[in-house]
Amino acid sequence: MGQTTSLTQEGQVTIPEEIRDALGLKPFDTIEIYLENGEAKLRKAYPSLDELAGSVPGIDVPMEEWSAIIRDEVAEAYARKFLK
Asked: What's the pTM value of the predicted model, to 2 decimals?
């Protein structure tokens, strides 16, 4: 079963340490809170590929090209490892 915590006057809640540890949450991590079958659930949020795409300075590659780039990189890594 879950753990009990309280809501502050500002609407904030402390996530119990056991839950933070189980989810691998660290200070300033982003979490997603959503409703499912009338219950509020939370999980660690990860950035989407769209959010990551513009995060590397100097690299301006359209999202449509990333799958081809990744496929080529994986193929090259495979060739280096297994086709020496």
From this structure: 0.52
